[in-house]
Amino acid sequence: MAAPVTLRPRADALAAPLPPLLARAERLASTVAHGAHGRRRPGAGDEFWQFRHAMPGDPARSIDWRRSARSDATFVREMEWETSQAVTIWVDRSASMDFAEGGRAPKADRAALLGLACAILLIRGGERVALAPGEGRGPPPAAGRARLDRIAADLAGPGAGGDRGGDHGGDYEGDYGRAPQTPPPPNTRALWLSDFLGPVEPALAAMRRAADAGVRGVLCQVLDPAEEALPYEGRTVFESMGGRLRHETRKADALRGEYRGRLAERRAALRDACRRTGWVWTRHATDGSAAAALGGLYHALEGGGR
Amino acid sequence: MTLGPVAFLAPFLLLALVVLPILWLVLRAVPPAPVRRRFPGVALLLGLQDEEAAADRTPWWLLLLRTLALGAVIVGLAGPVLNPREGAGGTGPLLIVADASWGSAPDWAARQARVEAALEEAARDGRPVSVAALTAPPVEARFSPAEGALAALPGLEPAPFAPDYAAFAIPEGTAGTLWISDGLDHPGRAELLARLEAFGPVEVAEAAGIPPSLGPPRPEGGEVALEVHRPSGGPAQVARVIARGPDPAGAVRVLAQGEAAFEAGATRAEALLEMPSELLARVQRFEVGGVRSAGAVQLADDGLRRREIAVLGPGADEALVLLSPSHYLREALAPVADLIEGDLGAVIPANPDAIVLADAGRVPEAAALEAWVRGGGTLIRFAGPRMAASEVGVGEDDPLLPVRLRAGGRTVGGAMSWGEPKALRPFDPEGPFAGLDVPEEVRVSAQVVAEPGPDLAERTIAALEDGTPLVTAAPLGEGRVVLFHVTANAEWSGLPLSGLFVRMLDRLALGAGGGREGAGGLEGTVLVPEVLLDAYGAARDAGERAGVAGEAVAEALASGPGAALPPGLYAGEDRAVAVNVIGTEAAEAGPAAFEWPRAPGPLVVDEEMPLGGWLLVAALALLALDALLSMWLAGRLRLRRGAVAAALLPLALALAPGGADAQDAAPGGGPATATPGEEAPFDAEDIQAASDVTLAYVVTGDPAVDEISEAGLLGLSRTLAARTSVEPRRPAGVVPGEDELGFYPLLYWPVTADQPTPGATATEALNRYLRGGGMIVFDTRDAGFRGGGTTAEGRALQRIAAGLDVPPLERLPEDHVLGRAFYLLQDYPGRFNGRDVWVEAAPPGAERIEGMPFRNLNDNVTPVLIGGNDWAAAWAVTDAGRPMLQVGRGPAGERQREIALRFGVNLVMHVLSGNYKSDQVHVPALLDRLGN
């Protein structure tokens, strides 16, 4: 008889993060103007596009009698042609994304928020969306509110939809996220949200593989401002979030220049790869506006589809 | 080991200071511990090299801080002591002798503290002690444990006379002496010093200066000269000499003030007090302002009393009384002298100071009169038609006239004569009328004229413009004879109509009887002490002390008072004699400072203060600071600048207790004083106080006392609110002179011993408050401890109230309206139940009417109420309403608290409703009238 007693708290605990994240994501999504997504031509869809004179060969079922009754001619109601796209979203949820400094939210939080908001926008636009796992093939992209809830649950749950520090074979990669190794279904879109601070080669390889499969997408590097500035001083031992990497320095401030140089190099490499594969490169700092980032991401996804 | 004022108990520990440089080197080599920091960007940092190869060193200031902390620990453990007391040295019985004389009185508390310190030290060392006041040498001094002497120390009191060195027997076994000296050269001091030194070392403690003393008053015309002595010399300085006496209403006031300006180094200065004889007659005492010593007080006696003057004129008709010469004389002399009327035969035995004869020809009882003058009397005669007609003194030497007279006399400016009436010539600056202004309008038209003679010039003390003598005087035996060559009425001259006449008579009357002061005539009489001075210069009723022989008084007048005959006012049959500390002999010599063979030690010895604890605390604080700084240095403490300041602020405050106290020094709870330049002089507090009844207490500066005062008034306020329609606000604390007092109906003033005397502004504010109908309740809170003598609080009260317009007081009479203003009360207890509660005295005429329970008393609210029952302590409640302090024991104590509260209610009712209850005596009359 213990089941009902424990089930409820567990269910509550499970559901608890969901509405806030979803609500925040919905609120964030509402800031993006809709309407840029229609195909702008007649076709199969739910939205009204235009009336035209009925032509021979049109099925009688398609005649809009209400319109036709107002004149002598008969009219056919044409709907806008809406094609749905499939988008796979990868949100890096490794340990390094848990980093936060100065009272800001962790990077993982912001990445999940952005990912979910994009998913909301896409699903509202009729696209099919799936959350890409780090390993293996995830569920195929799907549309509808149910999928959105699933995505939200996965993003809110601990490590449910992402990879969490699997062993990548290197001596330090476990702390960092790993881009999806299995390419998404062909001719779909991809949105990858990560800090891309881990080993860069596997990420680039995964991207190339996806591009080979005809997938185009968006890379978004989410960083905490502290990771861009290295605002530390004095004698410091730096450790990766999982504690697998260590670096000791006597003067942390002296390393600042070199660190920034390496970060710029990393970004240049990613941006280069994106340019070559036709992906879009964006970056986002957690002290920036999430709405602006979302707009950028959404338009990048949209633009990629044209 | 001693370094300046600091000594070390364990100086060898200071050797550890040598390790400090080593510590420096060690600490320098150890870098601060690293911070561990989680940082995803570490992947990008891998392989980066630090630029500097050198070890990261601890910054020098952190090293310095740590070194200082360790140094403080070492020095602190070495036991430093500030102002270490040099052991008086020696073992064995210690003799402590004190010159408990009038010269010690002003700083007696410091002397007692010195003795106390010496006794405590002796107690630590286990030395037996004997404490002796040299003014009252013990019959048999003996040594006893110091603890017992400490308990008896409060009984050591100064006496108002010089020490009796010769009578002091040094107890057997004395091994060392501490002599608390007053610094004055009392006779026999050197001999006693020699005697004491025979027994062991003598340590002398002496105050830095000797208090000033006051010589006897010397009336000189309209002024009184007093000499102020300061034996120890010093820089230029002004001493204020004050004459006190009753005003016409009977309240003792300052009658006159003068200043004695000392030049630098001078030991004497003279003060001149402008005092007409009418004022002089009322003086009770002269004193040096601000010096609480019997030596600075001169009691006034008959030397200054009103003269008795007999006025004898020709008999006049009732109708012509305004023209009678004696009428002018009476009017002129009445303010300055007591007049005696009668014929000569009756007057001479009464022995007045002067006899005034107006227009007498042949004196009937010339022989008796002459004998009286020769015995020291002053005869003042006025000329007139009768004298001129009797041709007395013409061509013969009449002993009762100062000069020979010419026959006839002289008339100028009349209808039958040439010339104008003559005016007066200015007075001789050496003569008795020196300095008097001659009014222009005085004209002499007729006079008797002196026969020129060899001694006429020197006998003339006033003359007309043309040199004709107007007033002549000649000595006769011990007395003298004065003749006005005009009438005492306005017949011959305008002199009796002018103010000059009064002043001339005043001068002559003051000069009369001058030879009768002093010791003369005391032999064989018995004098009874009326008022005695204590060493502090306060006068006290002598009570039922036995009379003393006149010879002893005469001796004391010359050589100064002693234990058998303390200074004071001694009354004989027909005169009162003041025996003052500074007698005539002492005044001539002037009190001198004693020259010690070796310089005496200071009276005030700095308190010994161990510093070890403070240093260790400082070390702890430094280490705490070091911890904070290390964290900050290592990056663990990432604070903005403001936050650092906020963190360091408490530390800084803790290290600077003076700074924190400075804020507390502002009178707590008192209304904020308006800053200058502000538009409205009253702040919100004042407006609040004015809109509701607010009880107030005077802030004494003693936090414990002030707390009780506030709590007491709070308790009283709550009782009032509960039982009466008076609903006061929370009580307020006020500082007279700073806060406006006018809003408070009642000021409760607990008197503490060390309370400062209110300054001029404060005194003025308080007097304004009293005049405006305010009431001050002085509470000395000593009714439980008073044992006959005056307590320190009592003296403080005298000091504080000296400047206030306090009316004559009486002990709270049974039928005072305070006993029935709200409750019917017989007792007025506080925490103590003393009977001594004083209020303004009832007017002298008040008498109880038969059948009435109360007298029909004054309409006033008593402006002061003085007592020592510690009322506030009985009223005091906590905020929660519980009594703060225990009163008495058990139910009786609670009953006493209740009565105390009822007294408080009555007090406030009395203040607020005034004579309302007193007026109830009229109720029967009112009812009677209504009935008709």
TrEMBL record, chain A:
<dbReference type="InterPro" id="IPR002881">
    <property type="entry name" value="DUF58"/>
</dbReference>
<feature type="region of interest" description="Disordered">
    <location>
        <begin position="155"/>
        <end position="184"/>
    </location>
</feature>
<feature type="domain" description="DUF58">
    <location>
        <begin position="51"/>
        <end position="268"/>
    </location>
</feature>
<dbReference type="Pfam" id="PF01882">
    <property type="entry name" value="DUF58"/>
</dbReference>
<protein>
    <submittedName>
        <fullName>Uncharacterized protein DUF58</fullName>
    </submittedName>
</protein>
Automatic annotation (TrEMBL), chain B:
<keyword id="KW-0812">Transmembrane</keyword>
<feature type="domain" description="DUF4159">
    <location>
        <begin position="694"/>
        <end position="912"/>
    </location>
</feature>
<feature type="transmembrane region" description="Helical">
    <location>
        <begin position="60"/>
        <end position="82"/>
    </location>
</feature>
<feature type="region of interest" description="Disordered">
    <location>
        <begin position="660"/>
        <end position="679"/>
    </location>
</feature>
<dbReference type="Pfam" id="PF13709">
    <property type="entry name" value="DUF4159"/>
</dbReference>
<feature type="domain" description="Aerotolerance regulator N-terminal">
    <location>
        <begin position="7"/>
        <end position="80"/>
    </location>
</feature>
<feature type="transmembrane region" description="Helical">
    <location>
        <begin position="611"/>
        <end position="634"/>
    </location>
</feature>
<protein>
    <submittedName>
        <fullName>Putative membrane protein (TIGR02226 family)</fullName>
    </submittedName>
</protein>
<keyword id="KW-1133">Transmembrane helix</keyword>
<dbReference type="InterPro" id="IPR024163">
    <property type="entry name" value="Aerotolerance_reg_N"/>
</dbReference>
<dbReference type="InterPro" id="IPR011933">
    <property type="entry name" value="Double_TM_dom"/>
</dbReference>
<dbReference type="InterPro" id="IPR029062">
    <property type="entry name" value="Class_I_gatase-like"/>
</dbReference>
<dbReference type="Pfam" id="PF07584">
    <property type="entry name" value="BatA"/>
</dbReference>
<dbReference type="InterPro" id="IPR025297">
    <property type="entry name" value="DUF4159"/>
</dbReference>
<feature type="transmembrane region" description="Helical">
    <location>
        <begin position="6"/>
        <end position="27"/>
    </location>
</feature>
<keyword id="KW-0472">Membrane</keyword>
